Amino acid sequence: MASDSVALLSRQLIGDEVDAENSELCDSPHFDLSPPSENSPANANQDFNAQSTQRLATRDDLEIDEPVFQDYYCLSLFTTVFCCFPLGVVALVFSLKASRLFVAEDEYNGKQNALVALAINAVAMVFGIVIIGVLLILFVFS
């Protein structure tokens, strides 16, 4: 019986014609698929539920933190101390400049200076690794 009611309900939702032998299932108030009228108790119940339930949170309601910018300050300190002092200092200057620009809300120039600091840090790290590698090779084979 339950499978018959499910089949009937699915046919009604799809829009197929209801067989005459299954028409007694449609007489049940549980399978009333007609839209409720404005004065029907079902519509009044929907209004009550809409008013009593909490409103769903939207994207505007959520508190979104400001995006964290990267000025590569720590990387610049690392390359200054361990890799290549002169290039590390230049990268440190650009990262501090990027930090100041982000605080001043100049996001575009802040990102540009941060990317320059990152590029200089990369060059300084490669240069430092090459120099340390050459010195290690000379020390080991001398």
Taking pLDDT < 50 over at least 5 consecutive residues as the criterion, the unreliable ranges are: 16-21
Classification by helices and strands: mainly alpha
Distance between the termini: 93 Å
N to C succession of SSEs: HHHHHH
C-alpha Rg, in Å?
Answer: 35 Å
Overall pLDDT level: 75
**Count of extended strands:** 0
Which overall shape is indicated by the principal axes computed on the Cα atoms? elongated
| SS field, number of helical segments | 6
Approximately what portion of the residues adopt beta-strand conformation? under 5%
Main pleated-sheet profile: none
Helix percent band: 55-70%
Describe this structure in words.
The protein is mainly α and 142 residues long. Mean pLDDT is 75; it is low at 16-21. The protein contains 6 helices and no strands. Helices cover 66% and strands 0% of the residues.
List the helices and strands and how they pair.
Layout: H1 2-14, H2 23-26, H3 41-52, H4 73-83, H5 85-103, H6 107-141
Helix pairs in contact: 4-5, 4-6, 5-6
Gist of the model:
This protein is mainly α and 142 residues long.
What are the salient characteristics of this protein?
single chain, 142 residues, mainly alpha, 6 helices, 0% strand
